[in-house]
Protein backbone atom coordinates (compact mmCIF):
# COMPACT_ATOMS: atom_id res chain seq x y z
CA UNK A 1 0.00 0.00 0.00
CA UNK A 2 1.12 3.54 -0.74
CA UNK A 3 2.38 5.40 2.35
CA UNK A 4 0.51 8.62 1.49
CA UNK A 5 -2.92 7.29 0.56
CA UNK A 6 -5.26 5.14 2.63
CA UNK A 7 -7.12 2.25 1.03
CA UNK A 8 -10.26 4.41 1.03
CA UNK A 9 -8.45 7.15 -0.88
CA UNK A 10 -6.94 4.73 -3.40
CA UNK A 11 -10.41 3.40 -4.11
CA UNK A 12 -11.98 6.86 -4.25
CA UNK A 13 -9.41 8.20 -6.72
CA UNK A 14 -9.02 4.98 -8.73
CA UNK A 15 -10.37 6.52 -11.95
CA UNK A 16 -7.56 9.09 -11.80
CA UNK A 17 -4.95 6.53 -10.85
CA UNK A 18 -5.57 4.44 -13.96
CA UNK A 19 -5.19 7.32 -16.43
CA UNK A 20 -1.64 6.75 -17.76
CA UNK A 21 -0.74 10.46 -17.91
CA UNK A 22 -2.24 11.20 -14.50
CA UNK A 23 -1.67 8.12 -12.28
CA UNK A 24 -0.76 8.14 -8.61
CA UNK A 25 1.88 10.83 -9.12
CA UNK A 26 -0.78 13.29 -10.35
CA UNK A 27 -2.98 12.37 -7.41
CA UNK A 28 -0.05 12.84 -5.02
CA UNK A 29 0.54 16.37 -6.35
CA UNK A 30 -3.14 17.12 -5.91
CA UNK A 31 -3.07 15.89 -2.33
CA UNK A 32 0.00 17.99 -1.53
CA UNK A 33 -1.51 21.11 -3.13
CA UNK A 34 -3.15 24.13 -1.59
CA UNK A 35 -5.71 25.94 -3.75
CA UNK A 36 -7.41 29.21 -2.90
CA UNK A 37 -10.84 29.82 -4.42
CA UNK A 38 -11.81 33.49 -4.26
CA UNK A 39 -15.58 33.80 -4.53
CA UNK A 40 -17.95 30.94 -3.63
CA UNK A 41 -20.67 31.89 -6.09
CA UNK A 42 -21.60 30.84 -9.61
CA UNK A 43 -18.05 29.96 -10.73
CA UNK A 44 -17.02 28.94 -7.23
CA UNK A 45 -19.73 26.25 -7.07
CA UNK A 46 -18.42 23.91 -9.81
CA UNK A 47 -14.84 24.89 -9.03
CA UNK A 48 -15.16 23.86 -5.40
CA UNK A 49 -17.20 20.75 -6.16
CA UNK A 50 -14.68 19.40 -8.67
CA UNK A 51 -11.53 20.40 -6.78
CA UNK A 52 -12.94 18.73 -3.69
CA UNK A 53 -14.06 15.60 -5.54
CA UNK A 54 -10.68 15.40 -7.29
CA UNK A 55 -8.85 15.44 -3.97
CA UNK A 56 -6.98 18.73 -3.71
CA UNK A 57 -5.28 18.52 -0.30
CA UNK A 58 -6.15 21.93 1.09
CA UNK A 59 -8.81 24.27 -0.26
CA UNK A 60 -9.20 27.85 0.99
CA UNK A 61 -12.58 29.52 0.40
CA UNK A 62 -12.82 33.33 0.47
CA UNK A 63 -16.28 34.93 0.44
CA UNK A 64 -17.82 37.49 2.78
CA UNK A 65 -21.31 37.27 1.32
CA UNK A 66 -24.46 35.48 2.47
CA UNK A 67 -26.68 33.25 0.35
CA UNK A 68 -29.70 34.87 -1.31
CA UNK A 69 -32.71 33.39 -3.06
CA UNK A 70 -31.54 34.75 -6.44
CA UNK A 71 -28.21 32.87 -6.07
CA UNK A 72 -29.84 29.45 -6.27
CA UNK A 73 -30.50 29.71 -10.03
CA UNK A 74 -26.78 29.01 -10.59
CA UNK A 75 -24.89 28.59 -7.30
CA UNK A 76 -25.54 24.87 -7.02
CA UNK A 77 -23.49 24.52 -3.83
CA UNK A 78 -26.41 25.91 -1.85
CA UNK A 79 -29.96 24.86 -1.01
CA UNK A 80 -33.10 26.71 0.08
CA UNK A 81 -32.25 25.95 3.72
CA UNK A 82 -29.01 27.92 3.34
CA UNK A 83 -30.57 31.31 2.53
CA UNK A 84 -29.12 33.99 4.80
CA UNK A 85 -26.10 31.89 5.83
CA UNK A 86 -22.42 32.56 5.13
CA UNK A 87 -21.35 31.34 1.68
CA UNK A 88 -17.82 30.38 2.72
CA UNK A 89 -18.89 28.45 5.84
CA UNK A 90 -21.86 26.76 4.16
CA UNK A 91 -19.72 25.76 1.18
CA UNK A 92 -17.10 24.15 3.44
CA UNK A 93 -19.79 22.19 5.34
CA UNK A 94 -21.33 20.95 2.10
CA UNK A 95 -17.96 20.01 0.58
CA UNK A 96 -16.75 18.10 3.64
CA UNK A 97 -19.63 15.71 3.03
CA UNK A 98 -18.37 15.21 -0.52
CA UNK A 99 -14.76 14.42 0.43
CA UNK A 100 -13.60 14.01 4.03
CA UNK A 101 -9.96 13.74 2.88
CA UNK A 102 -9.80 17.47 2.01
CA UNK A 103 -8.86 20.15 4.52
CA UNK A 104 -10.91 23.34 4.19
CA UNK A 105 -9.93 26.79 5.36
CA UNK A 106 -12.76 29.29 5.56
CA UNK A 107 -12.18 33.02 5.07
CA UNK A 108 -15.58 34.55 5.82
CA UNK A 109 -14.22 37.97 4.96
CA UNK A 110 -13.75 40.34 2.06
CA UNK A 111 -10.41 40.10 0.27
CA UNK A 112 -8.80 43.54 0.61
CA UNK A 113 -5.45 45.18 -0.03
CA UNK A 114 -4.75 44.72 3.69
CA UNK A 115 -5.26 40.95 3.88
CA UNK A 116 -4.74 39.69 0.29
CA UNK A 117 -1.00 39.06 0.42
CA UNK A 118 -1.24 37.34 3.79
CA UNK A 119 -4.06 35.04 2.64
CA UNK A 120 -2.76 34.29 -0.87
CA UNK A 121 0.88 33.73 0.19
CA UNK A 122 0.08 30.34 1.67
CA UNK A 123 -1.41 28.81 -1.50
CA UNK A 124 0.07 27.23 -4.63
CA UNK A 125 -2.64 28.18 -7.12
CA UNK A 126 -5.35 30.84 -6.95
CA UNK A 127 -8.70 30.57 -8.76
CA UNK A 128 -10.51 33.87 -9.29
CA UNK A 129 -14.27 33.52 -9.41
CA UNK A 130 -15.14 36.91 -7.95
CA UNK A 131 -17.93 39.13 -9.20
CA UNK A 132 -16.43 42.63 -9.36
CA UNK A 133 -13.58 44.54 -10.99
CA UNK A 134 -11.81 45.82 -7.84
CA UNK A 135 -11.35 42.27 -6.51
CA UNK A 136 -10.25 40.98 -9.92
CA UNK A 137 -7.45 43.56 -10.12
CA UNK A 138 -6.58 42.90 -6.47
CA UNK A 139 -6.30 39.12 -6.99
CA UNK A 140 -4.28 39.67 -10.17
CA UNK A 141 -1.83 42.11 -8.61
CA UNK A 142 -1.37 40.03 -5.46
CA UNK A 143 -0.65 36.94 -7.58
CA UNK A 144 1.91 38.85 -9.65
CA UNK A 145 3.64 40.20 -6.53
CA UNK A 146 3.74 36.78 -4.88
CA UNK A 147 4.55 34.82 -8.07
CA UNK A 148 1.38 32.70 -8.03
CA UNK A 149 -0.56 31.32 -10.98
CA UNK A 150 -4.02 32.89 -11.21
CA UNK A 151 -6.65 30.76 -12.91
CA UNK A 152 -9.14 33.34 -14.11
CA UNK A 153 -12.73 33.02 -15.27
CA UNK A 154 -15.49 35.55 -15.71
CA UNK A 155 -19.05 35.50 -17.00
CA UNK A 156 -21.71 37.83 -18.39
CA UNK A 157 -25.17 36.86 -19.68
CA UNK A 158 -24.29 34.13 -22.25
CA UNK A 159 -20.53 34.74 -22.42
CA UNK A 160 -17.62 33.32 -20.49
CA UNK A 161 -13.88 34.06 -20.43
CA UNK A 162 -11.16 31.76 -19.08
CA UNK A 163 -7.39 32.20 -18.90
CA UNK A 164 -4.37 31.25 -16.83
CA UNK A 165 -2.51 34.34 -15.70
CA UNK A 166 1.02 34.88 -14.43
CA UNK A 167 1.91 31.25 -15.06
CA UNK A 168 5.51 30.09 -14.79
CA UNK A 169 6.49 29.38 -18.39
CA UNK A 170 9.03 26.72 -19.46
CA UNK A 171 11.63 29.47 -20.09
CA UNK A 172 11.34 30.69 -16.48
CA UNK A 173 9.41 33.86 -17.33
CA UNK A 174 5.88 34.63 -16.17
CA UNK A 175 3.04 34.54 -18.68
CA UNK A 176 0.66 37.44 -19.31
CA UNK A 177 -1.63 38.60 -16.53
CA UNK A 178 -5.00 40.37 -16.38
CA UNK A 179 -3.42 43.81 -16.77
CA UNK A 180 -1.73 42.82 -20.02
CA UNK A 181 -5.22 42.23 -21.41
CA UNK A 182 -7.09 44.98 -19.58
CA UNK A 183 -4.65 47.59 -18.18
CA UNK A 184 -7.45 49.79 -16.85
CA UNK A 185 -10.90 48.93 -15.53
CA UNK A 186 -13.94 50.15 -17.45
CA UNK A 187 -15.62 53.25 -15.99
CA UNK A 188 -18.11 52.42 -13.20
CA UNK A 189 -21.54 51.41 -14.43
CA UNK A 190 -20.54 50.69 -18.03
CA UNK A 191 -20.07 46.93 -17.70
CA UNK A 192 -22.97 45.45 -15.73
CA UNK A 193 -22.45 42.77 -13.08
CA UNK A 194 -24.52 39.55 -13.03
CA UNK A 195 -26.91 41.29 -10.61
CA UNK A 196 -27.40 44.17 -13.05
CA UNK A 197 -27.08 42.47 -16.43
CA UNK A 198 -28.15 38.92 -15.67
CA UNK A 199 -26.42 35.62 -16.35
CA UNK A 200 -27.60 32.30 -17.75
CA UNK A 201 -27.62 29.88 -14.81
CA UNK A 202 -25.83 27.03 -16.55
CA UNK A 203 -23.03 29.30 -17.85
CA UNK A 204 -20.96 29.39 -14.63
CA UNK A 205 -21.41 25.60 -14.50
CA UNK A 206 -19.61 25.32 -17.84
CA UNK A 207 -17.02 28.02 -17.28
CA UNK A 208 -16.28 27.16 -13.64
CA UNK A 209 -15.73 23.52 -14.67
CA UNK A 210 -13.18 24.66 -17.27
CA UNK A 211 -11.53 26.70 -14.53
CA UNK A 212 -11.36 23.63 -12.25
CA UNK A 213 -9.81 21.68 -15.11
CA UNK A 214 -7.05 24.29 -15.51
CA UNK A 215 -6.36 24.29 -11.75
CA UNK A 216 -5.99 20.51 -11.75
CA UNK A 217 -3.73 20.58 -14.84
CA UNK A 218 -1.48 23.19 -13.29
CA UNK A 219 -1.14 21.34 -9.99
CA UNK A 220 -0.43 17.98 -11.59
CA UNK A 221 1.61 19.27 -14.52
CA UNK A 222 -0.60 17.21 -16.82
CA UNK A 223 -1.56 18.75 -20.16
CA UNK A 224 -1.15 22.22 -21.66
CA UNK A 225 -2.40 25.01 -19.42
CA UNK A 226 -4.35 27.92 -20.92
CA UNK A 227 -1.48 30.36 -20.30
CA UNK A 228 -0.93 33.02 -22.96
CA UNK A 229 -4.39 32.34 -24.32
CA UNK A 230 -7.83 33.71 -23.55
CA UNK A 231 -10.72 31.32 -24.12
CA UNK A 232 -14.12 32.78 -25.00
CA UNK A 233 -17.36 30.86 -24.92
CA UNK A 234 -20.69 32.07 -26.23
CA UNK A 235 -23.51 29.88 -24.98
CA UNK A 236 -26.01 31.79 -27.17
CA UNK A 237 -24.53 30.71 -30.48
CA UNK A 238 -22.33 27.88 -29.20
CA UNK A 239 -19.23 29.53 -30.53
CA UNK A 240 -15.81 29.23 -28.96
CA UNK A 241 -12.66 31.18 -29.66
CA UNK A 242 -9.18 31.04 -28.24
CA UNK A 243 -7.21 34.28 -28.58
CA UNK A 244 -3.44 34.33 -28.23
CA UNK A 245 -2.35 36.94 -25.72
CA UNK A 246 1.13 38.11 -24.75
CA UNK A 247 2.81 40.22 -22.13
CA UNK A 248 2.47 43.89 -23.01
CA UNK A 249 5.87 45.57 -22.57
CA UNK A 250 4.08 48.91 -22.04
CA UNK A 251 2.23 47.66 -18.96
CA UNK A 252 3.55 49.15 -15.75
CA UNK A 253 5.26 46.76 -13.38
CA UNK A 254 3.15 45.73 -10.42
CA UNK A 255 5.12 46.27 -7.22
CA UNK A 256 2.51 46.91 -4.53
CA UNK A 257 -1.20 46.70 -3.90
CA UNK A 258 -3.26 49.87 -4.27
CA UNK A 259 -6.74 51.09 -3.35
CA UNK A 260 -8.76 49.07 -5.89
CA UNK A 261 -12.10 50.69 -5.08
CA UNK A 262 -10.59 54.03 -6.04
CA UNK A 263 -8.76 52.51 -9.05
CA UNK A 264 -12.10 51.29 -10.37
CA UNK A 265 -13.65 54.71 -9.76
CA UNK A 266 -16.22 53.38 -7.35
CA UNK A 267 -15.91 55.67 -4.37
CA UNK A 268 -16.44 59.21 -5.63
CA UNK A 269 -17.20 59.15 -9.31
CA UNK A 270 -18.76 62.31 -10.69
CA UNK A 271 -21.70 60.26 -11.93
CA UNK A 272 -22.51 59.08 -8.41
CA UNK A 273 -22.21 62.61 -7.03
CA UNK A 274 -24.57 63.87 -9.69
CA UNK A 275 -26.98 61.04 -8.92
CA UNK A 276 -26.90 61.98 -5.25
CA UNK A 277 -28.03 65.52 -6.03
CA UNK A 278 -31.20 64.43 -7.83
CA UNK A 279 -34.46 65.22 -6.02
CA UNK A 280 -35.87 62.11 -4.45
CA UNK A 281 -39.12 60.75 -3.12
CA UNK A 282 -39.23 57.79 -0.74
CA UNK A 283 -41.41 54.74 -1.28
CA UNK A 284 -43.40 55.76 1.83
CA UNK A 285 -44.12 59.17 0.30
CA UNK A 286 -45.22 57.56 -2.96
CA UNK A 287 -47.46 55.16 -1.02
CA UNK A 288 -49.23 58.06 0.71
CA UNK A 289 -49.61 59.96 -2.60
CA UNK A 290 -51.32 56.85 -4.00
CA UNK A 291 -53.50 56.51 -0.93
CA UNK A 292 -54.58 60.17 -0.95
CA UNK A 293 -55.44 60.00 -4.63
CA UNK A 294 -53.03 62.89 -5.38
CA UNK A 295 -52.40 63.88 -8.97
CA UNK A 296 -48.96 62.87 -10.16
CA UNK A 297 -47.33 61.17 -13.15
CA UNK A 298 -45.46 57.89 -12.66
CA UNK A 299 -42.86 56.75 -15.22
CA UNK A 300 -41.09 53.38 -15.27
CA UNK A 301 -37.76 53.59 -17.14
CA UNK A 302 -37.01 49.86 -17.01
CA UNK A 303 -37.22 47.43 -19.92
CA UNK A 304 -40.49 45.67 -20.86
CA UNK A 305 -39.13 42.29 -19.73
CA UNK A 306 -38.46 43.69 -16.25
CA UNK A 307 -42.02 44.96 -16.00
CA UNK A 308 -43.17 41.34 -16.30
CA UNK A 309 -41.23 40.45 -13.13
CA UNK A 310 -42.44 43.26 -10.93
CA UNK A 311 -44.55 46.35 -11.49
CA UNK A 312 -45.99 49.31 -9.62
CA UNK A 313 -47.76 50.62 -12.73
CA UNK A 314 -47.01 53.97 -14.41
CA UNK A 315 -46.03 54.59 -18.02
CA UNK A 316 -43.29 52.28 -19.32
CA UNK A 317 -40.56 54.22 -21.15
CA UNK A 318 -37.15 52.47 -21.18
CA UNK A 319 -34.26 54.80 -20.29
CA UNK A 320 -32.89 54.74 -23.85
CA UNK A 321 -36.17 56.27 -25.13
CA UNK A 322 -36.84 58.75 -22.34
CA UNK A 323 -35.62 61.84 -24.24
CA UNK A 324 -38.05 61.30 -27.12
CA UNK A 325 -40.82 60.97 -24.54
CA UNK A 326 -40.07 64.38 -22.97
CA UNK A 327 -43.08 66.09 -24.63
CA UNK A 328 -45.41 63.71 -22.84
CA UNK A 329 -44.03 64.49 -19.40
CA UNK A 330 -46.15 66.86 -17.29
CA UNK A 331 -44.69 70.15 -16.05
CA UNK A 332 -47.59 71.15 -13.78
CA UNK A 333 -47.48 68.28 -11.29
CA UNK A 334 -45.11 65.92 -9.55
CA UNK A 335 -43.47 63.44 -11.92
CA UNK A 336 -42.03 60.37 -10.23
CA UNK A 337 -39.56 58.26 -12.16
CA UNK A 338 -38.55 54.77 -11.07
CA UNK A 339 -36.48 51.77 -12.10
CA UNK A 340 -35.20 48.65 -10.33
CA UNK A 341 -32.82 50.24 -7.81
CA UNK A 342 -33.00 54.00 -8.47
CA UNK A 343 -29.87 54.36 -10.60
CA UNK A 344 -31.31 54.43 -14.12
CA UNK A 345 -34.20 56.63 -13.00
CA UNK A 346 -31.67 59.09 -11.52
CA UNK A 347 -29.97 59.17 -14.93
CA UNK A 348 -33.36 59.87 -16.55
CA UNK A 349 -34.00 62.78 -14.17
CA UNK A 350 -30.49 64.21 -14.83
CA UNK A 351 -30.92 64.00 -18.62
CA UNK A 352 -34.43 65.50 -18.62
CA UNK A 353 -33.46 68.34 -16.27
CA UNK A 354 -30.36 69.22 -18.27
CA UNK A 355 -31.83 69.07 -21.76
CA UNK A 356 -35.47 70.00 -21.17
CA UNK A 357 -35.29 72.14 -18.05
CA UNK A 358 -37.73 70.17 -15.93
CA UNK A 359 -37.96 71.10 -12.23
CA UNK A 360 -40.77 68.79 -11.14
CA UNK A 361 -39.05 65.42 -11.48
CA UNK A 362 -38.47 63.08 -8.52
CA UNK A 363 -36.44 59.91 -8.43
CA UNK A 364 -38.03 57.03 -6.49
CA UNK A 365 -35.35 56.30 -3.92
CA UNK A 366 -34.28 52.63 -3.93
CA UNK A 367 -36.59 51.90 -6.89
CA UNK A 368 -39.01 49.01 -7.04
CA UNK A 369 -36.68 46.98 -4.80
CA UNK A 370 -37.35 49.41 -1.94
CA UNK A 371 -41.08 49.33 -2.72
CA UNK A 372 -41.06 45.51 -2.54
CA UNK A 373 -39.10 45.56 0.70
CA UNK A 374 -40.92 48.30 2.57
CA UNK A 375 -44.41 48.75 1.10
CA UNK A 376 -45.67 45.71 -0.79
CA UNK A 377 -44.17 42.29 0.04
CA UNK A 378 -46.11 40.67 -2.82
CA UNK A 379 -43.84 42.45 -5.35
CA UNK A 380 -40.87 40.25 -6.38
CA UNK A 381 -37.36 41.48 -5.61
CA UNK A 382 -35.14 40.72 -8.60
CA UNK B 1 -10.72 47.38 -47.36
CA UNK B 2 -13.47 45.30 -45.83
CA UNK B 3 -13.05 44.06 -42.26
CA UNK B 4 -15.23 41.79 -40.22
CA UNK B 5 -15.62 42.92 -36.60
CA UNK B 6 -16.95 40.50 -33.98
CA UNK B 7 -18.33 41.99 -30.79
CA UNK B 8 -18.38 40.59 -27.29
CA UNK B 9 -19.79 41.59 -23.89
CA UNK B 10 -20.88 45.18 -23.54
CA UNK B 11 -19.55 45.99 -27.06
CA UNK B 12 -22.57 44.06 -28.37
CA UNK B 13 -24.89 46.37 -26.47
CA UNK B 14 -23.04 49.45 -27.72
CA UNK B 15 -23.27 48.40 -31.39
CA UNK B 16 -26.58 46.52 -31.11
CA UNK B 17 -25.20 43.59 -33.07
CA UNK B 18 -22.85 40.61 -32.65
CA UNK B 19 -20.92 41.22 -35.85
CA UNK B 20 -20.49 44.15 -38.24
CA UNK B 21 -18.64 44.75 -41.47
CA UNK B 22 -16.48 47.86 -41.66
CA UNK B 23 -14.96 49.53 -44.72
CA UNK B 24 -11.69 51.37 -43.98
CA UNK B 25 -8.86 52.84 -46.09
CA UNK B 26 -5.92 50.54 -46.92
CA UNK B 27 -3.14 50.29 -44.30
CA UNK B 28 -5.35 51.48 -41.47
CA UNK B 29 -4.24 50.23 -38.06
CA UNK B 30 -6.10 49.09 -34.93
CA UNK B 31 -6.11 52.63 -33.51
CA UNK B 32 -7.72 53.86 -36.76
CA UNK B 33 -10.41 51.20 -36.50
CA UNK B 34 -11.13 52.18 -32.90
CA UNK B 35 -11.35 55.87 -33.86
CA UNK B 36 -13.83 54.98 -36.58
CA UNK B 37 -15.93 52.99 -34.10
CA UNK B 38 -15.82 55.83 -31.56
CA UNK B 39 -17.29 58.18 -34.16
CA UNK B 40 -19.99 55.72 -35.20
CA UNK B 41 -20.77 54.56 -31.65
CA UNK B 42 -19.77 57.30 -29.17
CA UNK B 43 -20.09 54.94 -26.16
CA UNK B 44 -16.78 53.36 -27.22
CA UNK B 45 -15.12 56.56 -25.97
CA UNK B 46 -15.89 55.38 -22.42
CA UNK B 47 -14.61 51.87 -23.00
CA UNK B 48 -10.84 52.39 -22.83
CA UNK B 49 -10.24 48.86 -21.61
CA UNK B 50 -10.89 46.82 -24.72
CA UNK B 51 -8.92 43.81 -25.89
CA UNK B 52 -8.53 43.76 -29.66
CA UNK B 53 -7.70 40.47 -31.37
CA UNK B 54 -6.88 40.28 -35.06
CA UNK B 55 -7.24 36.79 -36.54
CA UNK B 56 -7.34 35.38 -33.01
CA UNK B 57 -4.15 37.10 -31.84
CA UNK B 58 -3.93 40.05 -29.45
CA UNK B 59 -3.07 43.20 -31.42
CA UNK B 60 -1.77 46.54 -30.19
CA UNK B 61 -3.00 49.89 -31.50
CA UNK B 62 -0.19 50.23 -34.09
CA UNK B 63 -0.95 46.84 -35.68
CA UNK B 64 -1.73 47.38 -39.39
CA UNK B 65 -4.89 45.71 -40.65
CA UNK B 66 -5.28 43.76 -43.89
CA UNK B 67 -8.26 43.15 -46.14
CA UNK B 68 -10.50 40.34 -44.78
CA UNK B 69 -8.97 40.43 -41.31
CA UNK B 70 -11.29 39.14 -38.64
CA UNK B 71 -11.26 41.44 -35.64
CA UNK B 72 -12.69 40.62 -32.21
CA UNK B 73 -13.45 43.40 -29.72
CA UNK B 74 -13.39 41.87 -26.25
CA UNK B 75 -14.29 44.09 -23.29
CA UNK B 76 -13.71 42.85 -19.75
CA UNK B 77 -16.59 41.15 -17.94
CA UNK B 78 -16.69 40.86 -14.17
CA UNK B 79 -19.40 38.36 -13.28
CA UNK B 80 -18.69 35.31 -11.19
Secondary-structure element order of chain B, N to C? EHEHEEE
**Known CATH architecture of the largest domain in chain A:** 3-Layer(aba) Sandwich
Strand order of the largest sheet of chain B: 2-1-5-3-4
What fraction of the residues of chain B are assigned to beta strands by DSSP? 25-35%
Mean pLDDT of chain A: 95
Distance between the termini of chain A: 54 Å
Helix content of chain A: 25-40%
Distance between the termini of chain B: 39 Å
Largest interface: A-B, 44 and 23 residues
Main sheet: strands, sense, barrel of chain A: 8 strands, mixed
Notes on the structure:
With 382 residues, chain A is α/β, with parallel strands linked by helices. Helices cover 35% and strands 17% of the residues of chain A. Chain A is elongated and about 85 Å long. By secondary structure, chain B is of the alpha+beta class. Chain B has a 5-stranded mixed beta sheet with strand order 2-1-5-3-4. The chains are: A alpha/beta (382), B alpha+beta (80). Chain A binds chain B through residues 39, 41-44, 128-133, 136, 153-156, 159, 161, 181-187, 190-194, 197, 199, 204, 230, 232, 234, 237, 241-246, 248, and chain B through 8-10, 18, 43, 46-49, 51, 53, 56-58, 60, 72, 74-80.
Quick structural summary:
The complex is a heterodimer of chains A (about 375) and B (about 80). Helices cover about 35% and strands about 15% of the residues of chain A.
Notable traits:
heterodimer, A: 382 residues, alpha/beta, Rossmann fold, Oxidized Rhodanese, domain 1, 2 domains, eight-stranded mixed sheet, five-stranded parallel sheet, 16 helices, elongated, B: 80 residues, alpha+beta, Ubiquitin-like (UB roll), five-stranded mixed sheet, globular
